[in-house]
């Protein structure tokens, strides 16, 4: 598998003594951030390097409603929820494309500084639907849906500030 843009290849070292059959492919951007995807040679099996991410929010119940609405157009749903008693601290809520949560929010106070999280969208219409749903759920505009050719020619994204000031984005990399 190859990603568009400036290409490079790195080899991932296996955790076992067998010869390495894995390759990591990524795209180096102008600001030197790397997006890496792993593919096992000849198997067709691939996975993203990032398994899940969590952010802290000041009001878990309000944020749960916000993210349930904002992420629904992207196929995300609330999958798991744990009370403070279950996890020994603050409550946590996991969202994702069923059956696996990959985006978690936890109560107890927001992140300082705020974070930027970008969710993949299959097409431009879903980016627009995310934007409308997020604004309807109480988010603030931080960039209407549109092409961002300074990132790359097909970068179509929309940005919303969530209830805690986090910059939440939906992005589609496919040509229109």
Would you write up a description of this structure?
By secondary structure, the protein is α+β, with helices and mostly antiparallel strands. It has 2 domains: 7-48, no CATH class; 53-172, 2,3-Dihydroxybiphenyl 1,2-Dioxygenase, domain 1. The chain is built from 3 helices and 13 strands; from the N terminus they run E-E-E-E-E-H-E-H-E-E-E-H-E-E-E-E. It has helices at residues 60-71, 84-87, 124-136; strands at 7-10, 22-28, 34-40, 46-48, 53-56, 77-82, 92-96, 103-106, 116-120, 140-141, 146-147, 156-161, 167-172. Helix 1 (60-71) runs antiparallel to helix 3.
Summarize the structure.
Helix content is 16%, strand content 35%. The chain is built from three helices and 13 strands, in the order βββββαβαβββαββββ. The strands form three sheets. Strands 9, 10, 11, 12 and 13 form a five-stranded mixed β-sheet that branches.
Give the N-to-C terminal Cα separation.
22 Å
**Main sheet characteristics:** 5 strands, mixed
User: What general form does the structure show?
Assistant: globular
Radius of gyration: 18 Å
CATH-derived topology of the largest domain: 2,3-Dihydroxybiphenyl 1,2-Dioxygenase, domain 1
Helix content: 10-25%
The helix tally amounts to 3
Mean pLDDT: 80
Q: Estimate what percentage of residues fall within beta strands.
A: 25-35%
Number of domains: 2
Weakly predicted, low-confidence segments = 1-42
Number of β-strand runs = 13
Give the name of the CATH superfamily of the largest domain.
Answer: 2,3-Dihydroxybiphenyl 1,2-Dioxygenase, domain 1
Structural class: alpha+beta
CATH architecture of the largest domain: Roll
**Order of SSEs, N→C?**
EEEEEHEHEEEHEEEE
CATH class placement of the largest domain: Alpha Beta
